[in-house]
C-alpha cells in the first residue's frame, strides 16, 4: 500500500504520514473534547442496573470519569448533604476532584450556600483541585465574617474558575482569590463589580498563580485592573486570552490600554502566551492591523518561549495582523509558534480555508521567523481545527502540501509542521 496520502487517526487528531517529507506531529489537544457537567433535577430515577449498562456502553470513558469526580452544589441543603456524606463515607474525601458552586441557571442569583460550603467542608475534600463558581451574586452580609479564613483550609485547590459572578467590590474579589493558599490557575469570565473603583484598601495578595485565563474581551476589565494594580502577577508565566469576540475595531480600541498594560506588568515573567481571536470586522483592515500590533504588543515579554494564536473567523483572518503581532515579539528565547485556524462548518473546502492565508503575509512570516533572533525556535506549526460528519477526515496531506510551499525557509530548517484536529464531539 502506498504511503502517499495515507492518514493516521488518533484521539481526534490526524496527520499525514509520508516518509518523503518531514514528519508531521500529531497534536494532542484536550480542549476540543467537551464534557457535559450540567445537572438536571428532573432526570428520572432509573434502576441501578440500567445505569450500569449506560456506563458500560459509554465509549467516552473520560466523560464518565469526570462526572464521577465532580460535585455540583446549588443550595445549602445540597452542601449539608455532601458534608454528612463525606463524614459517613471517608473515602469520598479523596474521591472528589472538582467542586462547582451554582447561584442560578443562566442568571445571577445570590450564593448563600458558599459560606456553608466553606464552613462545613473545610479540610474535608483533601484532593479537590478545582473550584468553580457560576452565575452568582456575591452578598457579603450572607456569609460568616470568617468565611475567607475558612477558605484558607482548602489547601488542595490549585485552579479557581469564576464564571458570570458579581462581586460588591474589587476588595471582596481580591480577598476571595487570596484566600486559596495554593492557587496556581485563575480563570475569569464576565466578572462584574458593583463598586468598580480600585483604591488603597485593595487587599494584600497572598496567592500568586502561574496561569491567568481571561475568557472574553468584555466583562474582565475589573479583573485586569486588579491584576495590574496588585502584586498577584509576580509569578505569572502563562497568559491565555479566550474568545475575543468579533466586534468592531472601535469597540476593541476602548480596551487597548488595559490589555497592553497587562502584558507590560507581567513583563519578563511571561513564558507562554495564547490568544483566540475572531478576527476584526474586516471593514477597516489597516486599522485592524494597527490595533492588533499595538494592543497585543509582546515587546516587553522578553522571556517568552511559546506563542499560540487560534483564529476563529477565517473570512477575516487574512488582513495582515498575524504578521503584525509576530513582529512585536522581541524575545530571543522563543521555542514554539502555533497558529491554528478554526473552521466549525462541516466539510470545509480546502480552497476556502486557504483564503485565510495571504501568500504575501506567509512570505513575511517565513522571513521573520527564520531570522537570527529566533535561533532557539524548534517548531512552527499551522493547524486546521474542524469538525466533520460521518468521520470523513480532511486531507491532511493536502494541507501540508499547500502550506509547506508558502514557507520554504522554515521547511528548509526542518521546523515547519502542519496538523489537522477533528472535533467529533461537536457533531
TrEMBL record:
Write down what this protein is called: F-box domain-containing protein
Return the Basic and acidic residues bias intervals: 1-12
Its domain of life? Eukaryota
Span list, region Disordered = 1-24
